Amino acid sequence: MDDINLHYRFLNWRRRIREIREVRAVRYQERYKRMLKNGDTLSYQGNSDEVGCYVAPRPLSKGNCYFEVTIMDTGVRGTIAVGLVPQYYKLDHQPGWLPHSIAYHADDGKLYNGNPVGQQFGPKCNRGDRVGCGIYADNFDAGLVTVFFTKNGNEVGSVVVPVAPDGLFPAIGMHSLGEEVRLDLQAAWGSEEEDSVMMVDSHEDEWARLYDVKVSGTDYPKNRHPGWSRGSVAYHADDGKIFHGSGVGDQFGPRCFEGDIMGCGIMFPRDYMLDYEDEIDDWEAVDVRPKQGRVENLMYLNDEDEEEGDDPEQEHEGQKVMVFFTRNGKIIGRREVVVPAGGFYPTIGMLSTGEKVKVDLHPLSG
């Protein structure tokens, strides 16, 4: 009898091992629908009425935290999405449309975060552009992760999302004939940072030190536009929007083009506290000292966070000033903001090849 029981136990053990192997094989198997995969190339194979979707076999992790696609062809509409989804995501939906998924869409530059209605997020992407997606795993163990997106090696924006139980899997979506991308699941992030340094050709000695701005002891992110991160405010030429501590801007003024002169200044209140009580002739020697407040370099918050009162200014107890912006010598608008610890520094941001500006830190003003 003991021999029979031992025999059945051995058979059950073999069966369980076989089942585990089968489950693992399924778990780490890529899934795709209405797509043709040829090596590292994905192309749309539907009729433009139905979505095609690809989900990678393994989720992003601390050791493999970034992937990238190169758009080979935008097809009819360029409806290509790059993002992260749960393991068993429905393959007839674009990444970002369903809960627990997030994606950056190339055709409209919007971020879709578990919702078929997107938010304006970044520039549109075209043929030849590289679109990347990755995670900052600092708070991964707490069930949250910061997902960021890139275009041609430059970070476009980021958002904090909960981590699905099985992880977040790289996903590509397409929705029109002719769309094709080349996928790189082993892409490296950050290796081109030193190659993307902004070149400064200026007689302004002060400008050289502005590349690494210190705000409350923290470097302002080199790969994020002014206005995107907490404690910053900026007027953007491409869309005429003002960005104030968020990757989502508000309509503010006209767009600016070649030859336009954009300006920025501060109106200090009369009771503003300075570091010296005596009259100061050299304004550059003044050290503005608001009450200490922590400035976090978070670039984008979703609507739910904002509704909960996660206002950038609520984290500061510093003094308020009026920041104004001009176009061709005329004030186009003002925004009351809290001065971060350390004060405000003049900053210029660019995001595409060929952009060039002339900087004057001492313009004549009337």
Verbal overview:
By secondary structure, the chain is mostly beta strands. 8% of the residues lie in helices and 30% in strands. Strands 1-4-13-6-7-8-9 form a seven-stranded antiparallel β-sheet, with no helix packed on it. A seven-stranded antiparallel β-sheet has the order 2-3-14-5-10-11-12, with no helix packed on it. It has a three-stranded antiparallel β-sheet with strand order 17-18-19, with no helix packed on it.
**Structural class estimated from helices and strands:** mainly beta
Sheet-strand content, in percent, reads 25-35%
Strand elements, count: 22
What's the average pLDDT? 78
Helix content: under 10%
Order of helices and strands: HEEEEEEEEEEEEEEEEEEEEHEE
Strand neighbour order, sheet with most strands: 1-4-13-6-7-8-9
State Rg. 25 Å
The biggest beta sheet reads: 7 strands, antiparallel
Describe the structure using short key phrases.
366 residues, mainly beta, seven-stranded antiparallel beta sheet, 2 helices, 22 strands, elongated
